[in-house]
From TrEMBL:
One of its GO terms (molecular function) is transmembrane transporter activity. This is Major facilitator superfamily (MFS) profile domain-containing protein. It is a multi-pass membrane protein. Coiled coil: none annotated. InterPro entries: MFS_dom, MFS_sugar_transport-like, MFS_trans_sf. Keywords: Membrane, Transmembrane, Transmembrane helix. It is found in: Membrane. GO terms for cellular component: membrane. Residues 79-501 form the Major facilitator superfamily (MFS) profile domain. Its main location: membrane. It comes from Capitella teleta (Polychaete worm).
Amino acid sequence: MDVDEALSRLGRFGRWQVVTYCLVCCSVTISGCWHMLAIVFIGGEPDHHCALEEGQWKNETIPLEKQKNGDYAYSKCWKYSNFSLGNETIKCDQGWYYAPEYKETIITEWNLVCDKNYLMETSQSVFSVGVMCGAVVFTALADRFGRKKVHLGCQYSMLVIGLIIAFAPNYITFVILRFLQGAVREGAGLVGIVMACELFPASQRTFAGTALELFWAGAYMALALMAYLITHWRHLQLVITLIPIWTYYYRFLPESIPWLVANGRSDEAEKILQNAAKFNGISMPDRILHPHENGQVPNDPGSEVDDSSETSKMLEATGKARAFEILFFVHFVIFVVFCRFASGLIYFGLSLNTSQLVGNKYVNFFLSGFVEAPAYTLTVFVLQRFGRRYPLFIFHLIASVVLMAVVWIPEQTVPLIVTLTMVGKFAMTAAFGTVVLYAPELYPTNLRNLGFGMASVWGRIGGTIAPFSSFIKVAWAPSVAFSICALVTGVLALLLPETLNRPLPETIEEIESW
């Protein structure tokens, strides 16, 4: 039997699949989510103004400035040069006073405000650049050396780097370490997602790819609670680094069976399948996999081995070159550039800017994570019934309409604005989950991680740009931009091939036949 049939014979949700899947999901989502989104609180910006000298009063020393919404508020960066003589203003020259909502953040510790306020968003963008590099480097390594080694190597690196970040002495060190953190975080995440999907046959892959995101939603909400209780950024950094240590296991995590078979290591795949069948209490034949059915040709003794090996290498090289040509012109342009870029831009734009919504920042952040759980749950059932293309279009359309509607809602209607924003986040979460599942299904086995990594690069480019949306002086511009991107992406998604109930392609020829 082939790999897909062998995985089906293990049972729909056997103990081996459930335990292994949960281990992979925890290792992917907990530390990955926290290290990516904790910057909302680690880099939290409290209300502030120029520090006052003894005998000075705020209403006499700090001028009023017009805000984006048209209201007036005390200036954060200027003060009157001599409040008793005139209206001439100067920059803060005695430091700043910060409201006591945090014990310490990187902003308050290193005074990343006013002329330096771009440095906060820059640090997150540098993290995203690291993510892009990790998406390319580690996914390619995973295709070459295996999923398990690369995934766990990235996890251990994330632990070490996370601990060092907590003791970063200055901003430059912090940014460099965040770049490295982003790279290994993405390596662990992308390779882990592929590992989770490759545990199941085609009929269960929709569930596997989307249910994983429920673990992300749980970690998202837990981060809001931890940030509320721990308001010093160094302490929070230590906590989000040390808590996930229990997910850094080795012996219980098997190598990907499809990867082993595709790379001529059927004996190892056979051993894993036999152990899985035994763990599930299922009787399997002594020889589960047959080499010819998995695209392998058994070696014969003698000189024919060398010739066969050389021919195999030539065919592999030719096949990869041809695959890249087709994937570049079809999937790369249509899917990667538009779908991944827009999904990353909008999803991270909404996630990282929750603290700027009216209302309590911790509650808003929690709600932003809470809506992801039903969004991913809905995605599981919708994608199994209606496929990938049409739901992806509908999700983007809903997000586009809702985000455009927010522009026309009066700012005084706080509950309505928050509600519509969360509906938009709900739709984009469903779209993002669909894209994460969809991407690996469009690439053959030996190019799946690399292709998925290239797709992720464009998503992270969107994530790199997203933090700077808060600098746009026109308050409604980010919502309009997100709305237009969502609409265009939804329409373009209709041009992609449908992958519902198709086995993961092992060769480029399979993709061509769709």
